[in-house]
TrEMBL record:
Biological processes, Gene Ontology terms: maltodextrin transmembrane transport; maltose transport
Pfam families the UniProt entry points to: SBP_bac_8
Name of the protein in its database record: Carbohydrate ABC transporter substrate-binding protein, CUT1 family
Keywords in alphabetical order: Signal, Transport
Signal peptide: 1-21
Keyword field contains Zinc-finger: no
Family annotation (Gene3D superfamilies): Periplasmic binding protein-like II
Native organism: Poseidonocella sedimentorum
Length: 419
């Protein structure tokens, strides 16, 4: 073989590869899953596939611990150092969009077809972010417990009403077989409160804010329905149905160990419960407290930062990541709900007949996103404190009135948050 010809051919090939790499515009992504090896490996595989599948964009990932992620984004925004692709928690997105940290995502309607609606982050009539998964909460119980206590097994079409739910707690308490009838998850704080507990309020007919205007919490958080909710919430603890405080280890294993008859928990705990030997666990729908059964919705999503000069590149990456095979892989890897029926059918746990299949139905039938407002990030903290105070014996009406005043002051201070 002619050496000069070989060298010339190699040079041409090398130059072509370099030219292709040079043509790829780098898109830096920040991600909240630092320290979670499984999650990071799954994301890295999607990024690697995307970078190899086209010649326009080159995504690189920088991961942060979840506990410090939001603060890192806010600090970077103030310093003008945001990446192009942001990972954002669904209920936080409107605040970041309003503040200019994010911009609309120019993604095609076809790419979103068939997705759980709660996985699509919208603000001011535009799509800003899209998630690869969803999460749902259910009432964990043992079928043997229901049978022993003579309780009807509720269904999506016929959930327990208030009387049936409280009757179930009373029966469990009276049996003497449990430390507490109900584990709402008091070891967890922060976003768990509005995500897990505001649906009870909404089922009573109240809310954290008035969603018709987003200009006030008056009436929504301190009206008759909200006070009825607050009285019920407080009764869980004063009547001894649930623990006021709880250590994290007991939260993780209390239901498995038989300390609680019922536990309010997410799909992410389902596999551990099954692996813990609870082979007759049933995942029951939320009770209906008068205005329909409700569970929380909206998980982590991807979008374009406000300073990104290539939102079309971000959209291209997100569309690539939304392929069913990736959604299924994330679900199998980290246990969360895939965002399409097709992807669910490809998974181990959410396919028809799968151990966690009920959670997909719960997301479809009962899910309600948290208030879609930039002010949510403040209102959520106010709501958490109010519920913690009520659980510890504070006057319900006074506590809710004070919470309304604090939320309304924040809304007014921020000019209505653009609503």
């Amino acid at each position: 073989m002619n050496l000069s010809t070989t060298l010339a051919g190699a040079l041409v090939a090398s130059t072509s590869i370099v030219g292709m790499a040079a043509a790829q515009t780098e898109l830096t992504m920040w991600y909240h899953g630092g320290g979670n090896e499984v999650e990071s490996d799954l994301l890295d595989s999607i990024v690697t596939d995307f970078n190899a599948a086209q010649s326009d964009w080159m995504v690189s990932v920088e991961s942060f611990p979840q506990g410090s992620y939001n603060d890192s984004v806010v600090a970077a925004a103030l310093a003008g150092n945001l990446p192009c692709i942001l990972d954002v928690d669904g209920p936080v997105m409107p605040n970041w969009a309003w503040a200019g940290y994010m911009q609309p995502l120019p993604i095609s309607d076809a790419a979103l077809d068939g997705h759980l609606d709660s996985t699509i982050g919208r603000w001011a009539g535009e799509v800003y972010s899209v998630g690869l998964w969803e999460a749902a909460v259910a009432l964990y119980a043992r079928q043997s417990t229901l049978d022993a206590l003579g309780l009807r097994t509720p269904t999506l079409d016929a959930p327990w009403d208030t009387e049936e739910f409280m009757g179930a707690l009373e029966a469990a308490k009276a049996s003497g077989d449990y430390e507490f009838a109900f584990d709402p998850g008091m070891a967890w704080t922060g976003e768990w409160y509005p995500y897990a507990f505001s649906p009870f309020l909404q089922s009573f007919g109240g809310d954290i804010v008035d969603r018709s205007t987003y200009q006030t919490a008056e009436g929504a958080l301190n009206g008759d329905a909200a006070i009825a909710f607050g009285d019920w919430w407080q009764s869980l603890f004063t009547e001894g149905y649930a623990p006021v405080s709880q250590d994290p280890a007991t939260r993780d294993t209390g239901f498995i160990d038989g300390k609680y008859a019922f536990s309010w928990n997410g799909n992410w705990a389902g596999v551990a419960t099954l692996d813990g030997g609870v082979d007759d666990v049933v995942f029951l729908p939320a009770p209906d407290f008068g205005n329909g059964p409700v569970i929380g919705a909206g998980s982590w999503q991807f979008g374009a930062s406000g300073t990104c000069e290539h939102p079309d590149g971000v959209a291209a990456f997100v569309e690539h990541a939304l392929q069913d095979e990736y959604l299924a892989a994330f679900s199998d890897g980290i246990g969360l709900i895939p965002s399409t029926t097709e992807a669910a059918a490809m998974t181990t746990n959410y396919a028809p007949g799968g151990a966690l299949e009920p959670f997909f139905g719960l997301s479809e039938a009962q899910a309600l996103v948290r208030p879609v407002s930039p002010g949510y990030v403040v209102a959520a903290k106010v709501f958490e404190k109010a519920l913690a105070d009520i659980a510890n014996g504070a006057d319900v009406a006074d506590t809710l009135d004070a919470a309304v005043d604090e939320i309304n002051t924040d809304i007014e201070r921020n000019g209505g948050y653009g609503h």
